[in-house]
Amino acid sequence: MKIGLQISSFTWPGGAAAIGPTLARVAETADAAGFDSLWVMDHFYQIRGVGKPEEPMLEGWTALGYMAAHSKKATLGLMVGGVHYRLPALWAKAATTLDVLSGGRGCLGIGAAWNEDESHGLGFPMPPLGVRFEMLEETLRICHEMWAGEHGSEASFDGRHYQATRLLNSPQAISKPHPKILIGGGGEQKTLRLVAKYADACNVFGGPDQLTHKFSVLRERCAEVGRPFEEIERTNLQSVNLGRETPAQVVDRFGGLARVGVQHVILSIADVWDARNIDTFGRDIIPQVHAMEPRAI
Questions:
Q1: What is the DSSP string of 90-147?
Q2: Angle, to 10 degrees, between the axis of helix 129-146 and the axis of helix 191-198?
Q3: Please, is 82 exposed, middle or buried when counting C-beta atoms within 10 Å of its C-beta (0-12, 13-18, 19+)?
Q4: Per-residue confidence at 30, pLDDT binned at 50, 70, 90?
Q5: If you average pLDDT over every residue of the chain, what do you get?
Q6: What is the pTM of this model?
Q7: Gap between the Cα atoms of 88 and 135, Å rounded
Q8: Which fold has domain 2-290?
Q9: What pLDDT does 241 receive?
C-alpha cells in the first residue's frame, strides 16, 4: 500500500516568515522518509475541523511548485481542487506545468467543491452543486483533450459552461498518457460516475464499512461505462496524532484500510513541522505500510 502526506495547516512556529523554510524542510524530510505522495488543500481560508478561517493558508498550485523543488520522488497534487476556482484550460495547464517541472510527478486532484463561506468571502462565483458537477465534467473533458497527442487538440469545445476554439497544450505533460486525475468525493450518482468515466484515482472518505460500500458502487459505475475497475487507484484520507496514538496502532488502523481495498492512504500529521514526527513515520510506520497488500475487490 502507498502512503501520502497531506499538509493541511501552516500554523507553525515562527509566523509567516518561517512558512517557506518550514515547508521546504517538511517536503524534503517526507520525501526522504519514503512518502509516496505530497498534497496540499485547495483552500484560501483554513477550513473548519482544522482551524479558524484566519489561520495561514497557501494557494495550492504555487505551494506544490515550491514543494516540487524540494523533493525528488513523491508525486504532488491538490487534495482536492475546487472546480469553480479556475477555468478548465488553466486546470490542465497548471497540472502540466507541475508535471513538467517536477519531472513527471504531477497529479490533477479535483472535485465539485463545498466551501461556500470561502467562495462568498473572496468573491468566487459559486453556482449550485448540480451546476458545479456539470462544470466538473466539462473541465475533465477539456483536460483529456488538452492531454491528447503531441500538443493537445485542434478541436473546438462547445459546452454548456465553457467554450474553447483550440485546446493547445505545449509543452505536453511528461506523465503518460497524462498526469493522474484524482477525483475527490464519494457521491454515488454523480461523483463515482465521473470517476469511472474520466479519472485514474478516487479519494473516498470514511472508515472500512463505508469504504467497502463505496468501492462496490464504484465497481458498478465502472461496469456501466465499460471501464476496468482495477484501473482506478483507491485512496482514503486519514489523520494521525503521534502524541495520542502509537506507531503500532497507526499501522494496525491502516491495515484495516488495506483489508477493504484501499491502495493509497493519505494522511495529515499533527505538528508536521516537527521533523521528529516524520522521522517516526519513516522508521516505524512507512516500511510496514509499504509491505501491506491491499485486498483485491
A1: HHHHHHHHHHHHTTS-BEEEEE----HHHHHHHT-----HHHHHHHHHHHHHHHHHHT
A2: 10
A3: buried
A4: very high
A5: 97
A6: 0.95
A7: 9
A8: TIM Barrel (3.20.20)
A9: 97
